Amino acid sequence: MPTASNDNHGRSGRFASRPVPLRGSRETRERFIVLGLRLCASLAVVGLGLIIVFVFREGLPVLFDPATRQEASLHGFFSTPIWQPVSGVPKYGLLPLLLGTLKATLVAMTLATPLSVLAAVYTSEFAPPRAREIIKPAVELLAGVPSVVLGFFALVVLATWLHHALHVGTRLNALNAGVALGLAVIPTVFSVAEDALRAVPNSYREASLALGASRWQTAWNVTLPAAAAGVTAGILLGLARAVGETMIVLMASGNAAMVSGSVFDSVRTLSATIAAEMGEVVVGSPHYATLFFLGGMLFLITFVINTLAGLLVERMRRKLGTA
Amino acid sequence: MNNTASLLVARSPATPPLGPLSAGSPESTRRVGAGFTVLAGFAAFTIIAMLAVILGNIVIYGWRSVTWDFVSTAPREGMTKGGIFPAIFGTVSLVVLMVVALVPFGVGAAIYLHEYARQDSWLTRLVRFATTNLAGVPSIVFGLFGLGFFIQFVGRNLDRGLGLDVTWGRPSLLWAALTLALLNLPVVIVTTEEALRAVPRHMREASLALGATRWQTVRHVLLPQALPGILTGTILSVARGAGEVAPIMFTGAAYFLPYLPHSPSDQFMDLGYHVYVLATQSPDVEATRPLLYGTVVVLLLLTFLLNFAAVLLRARLRMRLAGRN
Amino acid sequence: MPGNEVIPMEAPVVIPPIPEAEERNGELGPPDEAHRGKPFPRDEVRTAGPVAKGGIRNGVRPPTEERLDDAAIEAILRVREFSLFYGQTQALKKVSLDIHPRAVTAIIGPSGCGKSTLLRSFNRMNDLIPGIRTEGEITLRDLNLRAATTDVVDLRRRIGMVFQRPNPFPKSIFDNVVFGLRMLGLRNRAELEARAEESLRRAALWEEVKDSLGRSALALSGGQQQRLCIARCLAVQPEIILMDEPTSALDPAATARIEELLIRLKANYTIVIVTHNMQQAARVSSFSAFLLNGELIEYDETIRIFTNPRVQATEDYITGRFG
Ligand SMILES: Nc1ncnc2c1ncn2[C@@H]1O[C@H](COP(=O)(O)OP(=O)(O)O)[C@@H](O)[C@H]1O
Ligand SMILES: [Mg+2]
What we know:
By secondary structure, chain A is mainly α. Chain A has 2 domains: 18-59; 94-320, Orthogonal Bundle (MetI-like fold), CATH 1.10.3720. Chain A has helices spanning 23-59, 61-64, 66-71, 74-79, 95-126, 129-144, 147-166, 174-199, 202-210, 215-226, 228-244, 247-252, 270-277, 286-320; strands at residues 83-84, 91-92. Residues 1-19 of chain A have low confidence and may be disordered. Chain C is α/β, with parallel strands linked by helices. Chain C has one domain (33-318): Rossmann fold (3-Layer(aba) Sandwich). In chain C, strand 7 (240-244), helix 12 (252-265) and strand 8 form a beta-alpha-beta unit. The model of chain C is unreliable at 1-73 (pLDDT under 50).
C-alpha cells in the first residue's frame, strides 16, 4: 500500500538533515505570539481605562469627600463667580473658567472654520495640481508646529500687533489666544474636511457637470452636501482640539479669571488653569482634587465631541459606500 | 366649445407646453462662481500666508542666536545667557525612551488588529474605539494622568515596596516618556495599520502557501514591506513628542537643572518647556529674547526635519498603495 | 501492482528525467517514494490512439467513484461530496473527484464557476476568508484535510500553490527560492544554495538567473517571475502543486515556456491546474474536470473530455458556446 507516512515526508536523499520543526512546539510558539500581540492591542484599552480611572479618582473627593467638600464642592463651583483658589478663603467658581474656555474656543472656531472649509473646498475642487502640492504640505507643516511655539508667537508677536492695530483692552486677551488657537485648529479641520470632499466619488461631480452646472455650483450643491457629515466631523474634531489645547491659551490669554463678555478682556481657560496651578498645589488638597475634576470635565467634553465626530465619519463612510 | 378644443383640454391637463428656459442671467451666475472660487483660493492663501509670517518672523529674529555655543552649552546667569544643551539633551533622551516604550507595543497592536483579529470581535472593536478616543484626549489630561497614575500611584507604591526614599514617586524622565508613549500610541497604531494595508494580500497568500506560519509571514514578509510606514509613524510620534509640553509639565520636565539627567528617575530639561519658561517666567524679558527665539528655532528645526522625513516616507508609501490598484 | 489494472499501459513508461537535474533526480523528487516508478498515463499514450479501455470510465461522476477500493490506492487526493459556502451563497455543490498522482489534472469551466474555490480548498487557503463553511470530505492520502486538528501549515508545505499573478516577494531571487526552506528552519548556507539551484533548474530558470541570484526578483520579466514562483514552490518538495491560472497574466511566449515546464514536471509531480484556456488544458493535462455553477459536470481523461464528452454542457463549453 502506497501510504507514504507523513513523518518521513521530505527527508529523502542527501539532505536528510532537513529540520522540520515539531508541530507542537511551533503551535505553542504561535499561540504565545498571538497572546503577546493581543496584549499589545489591549494596551490602548487599558491606557484609556487608566486615564479615566485615575483622572476621575483624584477628582472624586470634590463629590464625595466631606473634608474636601467643605472647601470645594460641586455646589461651590456654581455658587460663586470667582475663581480664587489660593487665598484665605479659597473660592472655586467655575463660571469664569467656563466662560473663558468658551470665548477662546469661539474666537478660534470663528476664524478656523470658514478658512479651513473654504481652503479644503478649494484644494479638492478647484486647485490646480501644483497649488495642491503646495497647500497640503503647508498645512501639514502647520500641523507640525508645536503648540508651545504658537503660544510663544501669540505672546511675543501677535499680541503686540493686535494691540497696536485695535488699541482696546489688555495686550493678552481672548482674541489673541483665540487667533493662535485657530491656527492650531486649522490643520485638523482642513485635513478631515479635505479627506471627506475627496472621498466623494467623481461620478457625482460628473453627473452635475454634465447637467450644465458650473464647477462652483457643483462644489456648492453637490460635493459639499455629499461630504457634509465628514466636513462637520472635521469641525467637531477641531472644536475638541480647541477646547483641550493648553499651551497656547496658557501663554497668550493673560490668564485672568474674570467674568466678561468681551473678547478684548483677558481669559483663563479650564486647561490653562490646570497647567498653571498644578505645579504649586499640595497633593491631596481640595485644590488638587478640583484641578483633577476640571481635567475630568475636559476629558468628558472632548470625549463627547470626538464620539459625535466619529459617528459622523462612520455615517459618511456608509453613505458613500467606502469601507 | 368646439370639439377639438375640448379634446385638447382633456389631453393636456393644465400643463402648458414648456417654453424656452428662463435661466437667470448667466452673467451673474458666472460672477458669483468666480467670486466663490476666488474666496476659496484666498482662504487657502491666507492659511499659507499666516504660516509664512510665523515661520518668517521666527527665522528672522532667531537664526542669529543659533550658534555652536548656543546648542552645546548650558544656560548661565539665571538663564539670561548661555545655551540650551541640557534642554536638547533632555528632549532627545525623552523621545528615545518614549520610542523604546512605544514602538514595540504600537506595532504589535497594529499587527494584531490587521493580521490576527476578527474584525467583528468585541476586543477588536473596543481596541479601535479606544485608539480613536485616545487620540482625542487633550494633552493636559495626559499630564494629569501621568501625575495621578505613574507618579502618585505606581511610583509611590514602587518606592514603598522597595523601601526607597522618594525615587520613583516624583516627576522623572521615565514617567514623562511613558506618558508621551501613551499619548502617541494611536499615531503608531494607525500608521502601522495603514502600512500593513498597503502590503498586497497576495503576499500573505504566497507566504502561507509555502508553508510559512502566520507569524513567519508577519515577520519575514509583512514587516519588511511595512517598514517605511512603521518608520513614518515612529518619526511622527517623535516629532509630536518633542513638541508636546502639557503632558510633561508635571511628570518630569524641570525649570532648570544644573546637571544632565543620568538615570530615568531624574528630571530633565526640555526644549518645549524651556520655550514656555523663557517666554513667561523670565526675570528680564529683553535679555532672554534672543535665547527664546533661538530655542524656538532649534525646536522647530527638530520637529520640521522629523515631519518632513515622515511626509516623504508617507508619500512613497501612498504611491505604492495607489500603484496596487 | 494494483494500479496496473486501473490504467493499462500500452508502452512501458519511463519517467523522463529533468535534463539539468538528472543525477539528483532520485534525491530531490517529491517525497512519495512508494509511487516512484509506478506507471501513469502519458501524453504519447493517449494521443496515440484509443485509450482507457475499461480503465477510467466516462460519466458525470468521477471515474473512480464506483471503484473506491481501487481509488484508495490510486488517488493521492480524494474529494467526496464537498460543498463550500461563502456565507449564504454556495460556491461548490457536492463535488466528488480523485486527483491522480504524477499527472496533470486540469479544472476547467466558465469564470465564477468555483474553480479557484475548489483549488484553494485543497490547501485550505480559503481559511483566510471569514464566513466560509464547508461540508463533505477531502483527504490527502489518509489525512482528513477538513479536520480541525489538521496542521494547516504542514498541509501547505505538502500541497504547494502557484498563483494567477506572479507574486514573488520583494526580495532577491535567492531569498525567494529558499523562503519556504528558511521557514522550515533550514539555515545551512551550502544546503540552501544547493536546493535553490536544484529548484531553479527544475523550474527551467537556472540558466537565466544563475549569475544574478542576488538581484531583486521584481526585476525579472513576468514569465520569469512565474517560473521563480514555481521554483519557490518546488523547493519545499510538495507532494501536490496547485496552479490557479498560472499563465493568464503572461504573454504567449512566456505561457509556452510554462506549459513546456508543466509537461516536464508532471512525470515527477502531481499537478492540479485551473485554466481558462482550453488549448492549454488539452496540451498539458491528462485529466480534466469540468465545473459549472459549482457543480462537477464531467471528469475524465482530457482526451475524452475534448473529443467525446458525455454531457451536452461540457461539449457546449468546449466548443465555445458559452463561458
Ligand atoms: N471571498 C468570496 N466571498 C464571497 N463569494 C466569493 C468569494 N470568492 C469567490 N466567491 C464566489 O464564488 C464563486 C466562485 O468563485 P471562484 O472560485 O473564484 O470562480 P472561478 O475561479 O471559477 O472564476 C463566484 O460566484 C464568486 O462570486
Ligand atoms: Mg479563479
